[in-house]
Amino acid sequence: MAQTSTPSTIADPAPLGLAAFALTTFVLSAANAGFIPKSGEAVVLGLAFAYGGLAQLCAGMWEFKRNNTFGATAFTSYGAFWLSFFLLVTYFAPKIPPDAAPTAIGFFLVAWGIFTAYMTIAALNLSKPVLTVFVLLTITFFILASGAFTSNPSVSMLGGYFGLATALAAWYASAIGVIASTKT
Length: 184
Hints:
Blueprint: H1 14-32, H2 43-65, H3 69-92, H4 101-123, H5 128-150, H6 153-181
């Protein structure tokens, strides 16, 4: 008996990736903005590893399956960002000498800002909500980098506020995808 082949389909992973990014960014940005006290900032680490990291990494792999280079690159990269953030804060930041920390963390954030800037250019061809996420995230990374380089908590706090706006934009973009998927 001959087997028939039907194309495999998977659901759109973008709403999941955007939701994971949004929630994790929201909590970290709340800490950066000063809404979460320093003693409670560790709450971000589990989210960074599991939801921001692993869930986005999975969304990126599913975007590869859907042949979406932009989505695959974005979700896989930001999933790796969250995993690297978890590792940095948990294991490596304490090993950075205090005099080197501003420069080291600043360059970590600048590098992500550069990546996000070119992804923003690519996002010009996408929906306005997704483009908004990338514009806000680019600004956020560069403000946070400036705060790190200068060791200025007020600048880092401003980055936290921009991060909160980024998270809200990402939740909005995610919600559009989820709601659209329920309409048949």
